[in-house]
Design a protein that fits this description.
six-stranded mixed sheet; signal; D-Maltodextrin-Binding Protein, domain 2; SBP; globular; about 425 residues; ABC-type glycerol-3-phosphate transport system, substrate-binding protein; single chain; alpha/beta; Bact_solute-bd_prot1
Length: about 425
């Protein structure tokens, strides 16, 4: 069991993750806040999380319960939030002065909140060994205008899940090593070979396509944005159009991509994959937890290394913990975050969500537990392919993604507009969002 490995790691981390204070690690910004409660005073911290998978909710509840049992004077109230309205709920809470003390969110949604002054700068509060346990590109993704306003703990990639039996029957080799994934051109070629009878070669849940396409476009150096971080300039050129062009070709020319893709949510591809309707699917690697639960033992499914264009880059967009600047108890809130960041806790949350732990210590623990099953080593090692992207640093990215990019990609993949129309809609929409 992986907990044998993390027991030693947790012991080593205990000194730095003490629950009586914080070690300065530089980074500028706010100094570590003073103790915000009187000796013996009992307080309650609110903690909101948009975790939605049953296993993740269960593990989060266990960690909160463990904290509460050990800290009768600093209780944590766990608030479950729907991921569909998490952003809008935070907007309302920040504006009304009722934000939770500790906020679980994703890095891409934090930039605007950070610049508006709603999130506390945690730079001086992060222990040095926790800082060194997380790779620099991941820290960059939560750094806004030089301030670290979130602590990252796990992340996802868009992974290619394959039915190994169908690939073997078609004479298609299954890569296993990280960095050895198919190119997008190979995906297209192999999807055509796999499209037979009632089986379609490829599907991707693109009901809300923008974030996935923008992340995958980095594999062709398609960055979309450049210039001033808060309000960058948009460019939709050949690099940014390469991934949607490939998908369009697979949909309309090759007919090797399921047309139902544009009506499916990210995890909605699972039943079709399990039922043999799709030979391969692209999805957030979190669907592995559903496959481990729902897939019959007869289904030999694998996760392949990341798809490649000119590289295999994807956007670093980790799940994070932040502290609201409105919090009356920031010292205690940071103590709770440090408790959440203990190696065994990060490992348990990552395993439950089938996401990638961003701390090296938790990654080693999950790697021991997962072993070689289903191609997990390639995914756990893919953290090295995650890069910071200017899109996620832009203030109005979430608004633009929701109101412009998602419907524009839907129209393009539905055959209603051409590439020029797609580029125009994306560009005009960004300009409107920044007026």
């Amino acid at each position: 069991m992986y907990r044998r490995l993390v027991a030693a790691v947790s012991t080593l981390l205990a000194a730095s993750l003490t629950l009586t204070g914080c070690v300065s690690a530089g980074g500028g910004g706010d100094s570590s806040p003073a103790e915000s409660r009187a000796p013996g005073e009992k307080i309650t911290l609110s903690f909101s999380s948009s975790a939605f998978q049953p296993g993740t909710i269960k593990e989060t509840t266990k960690i909160v319960d463990a904290w509460n049992a050990a800290h009768p004077d600093i209780q944590v109230q766990y608030q479950k939030v729907s991921p569909d309205d998490a952003h809008d709920k935070l907007v309302t809470q920040f504006a009304g002065g009722s934000a939770p003390d500790v906020i679980q969110n994703e890095a891409a949604d934090n930039a605007g909140f950070s610049r508006q002054g709603y999130l506390l700068d945690l730079g001086s509060m992060i222990p040095a060994d926790l800082k060194s346990d997380i790779p620099d590109p991941i820290w960059q993704s939560v750094t806004v205008d030089g301030k670290i306003t979130s602590v990252p703990y796990m992340t996802q990639v868009y992974a290619l899940f394959v039915n190994a039996s169908k690939l073997e029957q078609a004479g298609i080799e299954i890569p296993t090593d990280a960095g050895d994934g198919w190119t997008w051109d190979q995906l297209r070629s192999n999807a055509k070979k796999l499209t037979k009878g009632k089986t379609v070669g490829f599907a991707w849940g693109l009901k809300q396509p923008a974030q996935g396409i923008i992340s995958e476009s980095l594999s062709y150096d398609g960055t979309f944005f450049s210039g001033e971080p808060a309000k960058p300039t948009i460019k939709v050129g050949p690099n940014e159009l390469k991934v949607p062009q490939t998908l369009h070709t697979m949909l309309f020319q090759d007919k090797s991509m399921s047309p139902s893709s544009i009506t499916l949510g990210g995890s909605d591809v699972v039943p079709g994959f399990v039922g043999g309707k799709y030979a391969t699917v692209l999805a957030g690697n979190y669907i592995a937890s559903q496959l481990e639960t729902d897939a019959p033992k007869s289904l030999d499914w694998r996760i392949l290394p990341l798809l490649k264009g000119t590289n295999d880059h994807q956007a670093a967009n980790p799940q994070t913990f932040s502290i609201a600047r409105q919090s009356k108890h920031p010292k205690e809130a940071m103590q709770f975050i440090q408790f959440m960041m203990q190696s065994d806790h990060v490992a348990a949350l990552s395993e439950a969500d089938s996401l990638i732990p961003v701390t090296k210590s938790a990654g080693a623990a999950v790697s021991e537990k997962k072993g070689d099953t289903h191609g997990w080593p390639a995914i756990l090692n893919s953290q090295e392919s995650l890069v910071n992207t200017p899109a996620y640093q832009a203030d109005n990215f979430t608004e633009w993604k929701t109101t412009t990019a998602n419907p524009a990609y839907q129209e393009y993949l539905g055959g209603k507009i051409d590439e020029a129309g797609l580029a125009k809609k994306l560009t005009d929409g960004w300009q409107r969002a920044n007026q």
